[in-house]
Design brief:
Helix content: over 70%
Radius of gyration: 36 Å
Largest sheet: none
Number of domains: 2
Order of helices and strands: HHHHHHHHHHHHH
Number of strands: 0
Strand content: under 5%
Oligomer: single chain
CATH topology of the largest domain: Serine Threonine Protein Phosphatase 5, Tetratricopeptide repeat
Structural class: mainly alpha
CATH superfamily of the largest domain: Tetratricopeptide repeat domain
Length: 411
């Protein structure tokens, strides 16, 4: 199953700089040879303008904007440079998937140092967009290598997507908190909420399928264990028949008739067990080995029947021993499958509930003492959402009956 991707109408417009730009600023040359000096605002404006020229390569743009952030003392200009650097990294994502994490860091810095609500709301909205793009990129990478029959792995993938989308939604909500009239953040938040609900529904459905799969696996294990016990009894009876024929080479007609009837009954029981295993529709290599052993047992039993009908007791005893050995091998293989949980197509998989009991990862937070109100606010909202999602998941597991979780409107 695939998640329907919704392309956000995120605004990547460069922040306007309310000042005149000039390429003949005399201070530019004076500062070129002394990069340790603070960069005046006039020079920073020129450098930002140069960096954002469409003809400027990404490497040069990165170098110029990084220098502005490092040297300029004007908080607004530093935040503008950080914002534009974050947008440049987002635009680089098609050729460099790892650039989205760098984009988030630059945009958080722009949000932290921004002195205008317009810049901060766009930075937060772009952070949400970057997280959404990371979710989509991870989904595309995982889909190519995912085994469609591995339901626990599919659930784990959806849970990872859900957690990233929750962080994305928290960023859009944080943008809305800065400016309630900023429509792109409102629209993006609603779209992500809808996708979060869709993924929750898919997780619920997968949990139901996984539970059914586990119940079926347990039933198969129980059936295989019971079949193994019956095959062991058949093997013992078959060996007893072989021992009697080896010890008594000549028997009365009545004894020969009784042995023929006993052998017919053993052959019928072996056939019944073989048909019962075939009905399980298990095409694993282990089960194929069991069926081959049962077929070998039946072939040997038919030879024993023919030998008994001709009065050849020693030949019948040899065939009966071969049948007993084949039945014993089939029983041992079935018992091994039942004990190790390797039966079926999905056997041996770890318990998905155990995999999902781990701690939720906290959303990434800005580093350093400068990360105060804005990044903390985004992280706190994301953490609240993750905590809420964990509580809902625990309630679902306790009920063991998947239910649709309604979209929360009080994020």
């Amino acid at each position: 199953m695939r998640i329907q991707i919704i392309i956000f109408l995120a605004i990547f417009t460069l922040m306007p700089i309310s000042a005149s730009f000039g390429s003949d600023d005399p201070d530019a040359e004076n500062l070129a040879g002394n990069e340790a000096e603070p960069m005046p605002a006039s020079i920073a404006r020129v450098r930002i303008q140069q960096a954002m020229d469409h003809a400027t390569p990404f490497e040069d743009r990165h170098s110029i904007l990084s220098e502005v952030v490092a040297r300029c003392e004007d908080h607004q200009l530093r935040s503008i440079a950080s914002y534009n650097m974050g947008i440049a990294y987002i635009r680089r994502q098609p050729t460099d998937p790892g650039s989205l994490a760098d984009a988030v860091e630059w945009l958080r810095q722009a949000d932290t140092e921004g002195t205008s609500s317009e810049l901060r709301v766009r930075a937060r909205d772009s952070i949400g967009h970057a997280w959404y793009l990371m979710t989509r990129a991870d989904q595309e990478n995982q889909d190519t290598a995912l085994n469609p029959t591995d339901l626990p792995a599919m659930k784990e993938q959806l849970v990872d997507q859900l957690e990233q989308l929750i962080v994305s939604a928290s960023a859009f909500r944080a943008a809305h908190d800065v400016d309630h009239s900023y429509r792109p953040a409102i629209e993006n938040l609603e779209r992500v909420r809808q996708e979060i609900q869709n993924i929750r529904n898919q997780i619920n459905s997968l949990e139901e399928l996984i539970e059914q799969q586990q119940e079926q696996a347990q039933q198969r294990q129980q059936q295989q264990q019971e079949t193994a016990e019956r095959l062991e009894e058949l093997a013992e009876q078959q060996q007893q028949e072989a021992n009697e024929n080896k010890e008594q080479s000549s028997k009365t007609p009545e004894e020969q008739s009784q042995q023929a009837e006993d052998q017919d009954e053993l052959c019928n029981q072996t056939q019944s067990e073989q048909e019962g295993l075939s009905e399980q529709q298990d095409d694993s290599e282990a089960m194929q080995e069991v069926e081959q052993q049962l077929q070998s047992a039946r072939d040997a039993q038919e030879r024993a029947q023919e030998a008994l009908s001709q009065g050849k007791m020693q030949e019948a005893a040899k065939a009966q021993e071969e049948a007993a050995d084949a039945l014993e091998s089939a029983a041992n293989k079935l018992r091994e499958m039942s004990e190790n949980g390797t039966e079926g197509k999905n056997g041996g998989e770890p318990d998905p509930e155990q995999e999902s009991d781990g701690e939720e990862q906290e959303p990434e937070q800005s580093q350093g003492e400068d990360a105060e109100e804005a990044p903390q606010e985004i992280s706190e909202i994301a953490q609240q959402l993750l905590d809420k999602e964990r509580r809902e998941r625990e309630r679902r597991k306790a009920r063991r009956t998947p239910q649709v979780v309604p979209v929360e409107r009080d994020w």
